[in-house]
Amino acid sequence: MLTDTHCHLDFNKFDEDRETVIQRAVEAGVSPILIPALEHESSLSAIKLAESHPALFAAVGFHPTDLDKFSEQAFERVKQLANHPKVVGIGEIGIDYY
Fold first, then answer.
1. Cβ distance 71 to 94 under 8 Å?
2. How many other CB atoms are found less than 10 A from the CB of residue 28?
3. Whose C-alpha in 36, 45, 58, 76 is 20 to 30 A from the C-alpha of 10?
4. What pLDDT score does 65 carry?
């Protein structure tokens, strides 16, 4: 069994073949698959996608490059989302040096 700990399946570039990508991954033994969020809106998107398939899970948070969307209110909403049963972690969060 393999785990993908960082797969942005919620990105638009997967709109055409998202289900096929998920199916191929599961058939290849990749499960679970974690979708890390970038901010509040993508946290919602990651959770919604995770709800659609048993192999998918979400991590909610704010990526350092998306802090222009950060506010205390948005952070409170993300913290509330962390209680969702398909949320298994906090992320993206960290320091990017680029």
1. no
2. 9
3. 76
4. 84
Question: What DSSP string describes 7-28?
Answer: --TTSGGGTTTHHHHHHHHHHT
* The residue count for the chain: 98
Contact 30, 57 (CB under 8 A): no
Is 1 within the bounds of a domain?
A: no
What is the mean pLDDT of the segment spanning 19-41? 95
Whole-model pTM?
0.89
* Spatial contact of 90 and 82, defined as CB atoms under 8 Å apart: yes
* Measured distance CA(37)–CA(20) in Å, rounded: 21
Q: By residue range, what is the domain housing residue 62?
A: 37-98
**Neighbour tally for 44: CB within 10 Å:** 18
Would residue 93 count as lying in a domain?
Answer: yes
**Cα-based distances in Å from 40 to 22, 37, 96:** 23, 8, 19
